């Protein structure tokens, strides 16, 4: 049974990590830290907490800000679309007689949206990398690693993430010499 579920768990884990990275970047770069009346207007200084924590210069920020604003807009629209499709998938699964073909088609739609989000995140990171110093790049990528679980054990991939597996692991280890 686990051989059938394992690939699905891997795909789910990758999808969640991609969605998390995209969401984290959007959240970190989002304009909600400035008042609604100031959004879209030129602001004095670096208003993005992510870029502030990277200690970007005003010159760097002048080059980064238009990209951040565009990325926010594009990714928020795409994120809303992916979330709408996830809701539709849940409805399909919750149906009294789930249509497996419709579920598979909806999964493909979600994966296509996540792929687009991943492409946008990667394109944005590559573009920002051209503006950031080597030290700023190192700090940015370390922050991403820490937020996505890449620097440590990924809870979605370990056996402890399977419900009830902790007790089975304890029981198995107690019975071993």
Which key terms come to mind for this protein?
177 residues, mainly alpha, 72% helix, disordered C terminus
Q: What is the tally of beta strands?
A: 0
Task: Characterize the largest beta sheet: strand count, sense, and whether it forms a barrel.
Answer: none
Count of individual domains? 1
Backbone structural class: mainly alpha
The ordered string of helix (H) and strand (E) elements is HHHHHH
Helix content percent band: over 70%
General description of the model:
This protein is an all-alpha fold. It has one domain. Helices cover 72% and strands 0% of the residues. It has six helices and no strands. It has helices at 2-29, 49-53, 58-94, 100-131, 134-148, 165-175. Helix 1 runs antiparallel to helix 3, helix 1 (2-29) packs across helix 4 (100-131) and helix 3 runs antiparallel to helix 4 (100-131). The longest helix is centred in the middle third of the chain and has 37 residues, at 58-94. The two termini are 28 Å apart. The model is unreliable at 31-43 and 156-177 (pLDDT under 50).
